[in-house]
Amino acid sequence: EAGVVQSPRYKIIEKKQPVAFWCNPISGHNTLYWYRQNLGQGPELLIRYENEEAVDDSQLPKDRFSAERLKGVDSTLKIQPAELGDSAVYLCASSLGDLRTYEQYFGPGTRLTVT
Amino acid sequence: GENVEQHPSTLSVQEGDSAVIKCTYSDSASNYFPWYKQELGKGPQLIIDIRSNVGEKKDQRIAVTLNKTAKHFSLHITETQPEDSAVYFCAASKGSNYQLIWGAGTKLIIKP
Predict the structure, then answer these.
(1) Bridge partner list, B10
(2) When you count CB atoms within 10 A of the terminal residue's CB, does the N or C end of chain A come out lower?
(3) A37-95: per-residue pLDDT in tens?
(4) Cβ-count burial A59-69 (b if 16+ within 10 Å, e if not)
């Protein structure tokens, strides 16, 4: 079974440029998460989807970040314009969405460097 | 809101010895406590978890203990091996409809 797929793995951009990250969750997983992980810290939730609905986006900086999950499968996270402080690893995770199953499966992440 | 503190930030042990990582949480309503292992260049991977109706759970060389009264939980790794070297994260949640609150991580170094 394929795991969570993310692309690109690495991205270097100049500040004020736009950037987009793509995630394909494990087949059959209804819940999808986007996290940001700064160096030496734990992941920080940006947004959680249940199917195509964003059910928790309270920590998404909406002035520059946007996300979508059309058709409730893969998802895209966008930053426009990027700032130096956005440099981090962006992780995507998915889970079954069953209330009895809590485990989240993570992709390898996209390492973003803003110069 | 919930806060999870994790100690130590770095732990170096001799191969074959045991390692213990401790976490405390602030929200008494939290009922799910997973531990994730993150290797360089990879996403976190769940290694063991415990729910609040259980005090201890074991899986081969890995065990987790939970003290609800004191609001702390610990990861125990016995007979450590070189492949145990990684960053370990604890987390806490009030349930699957709530977000995981993560600790800051512990870098475990296994010395040969």
Answers:
(1) B107
(2) N
(3) 999 899 999 999 999 999 889 899 999 999 999 888 999 999 999 999 999 999 999 99
(4) ebeeeebbbeb
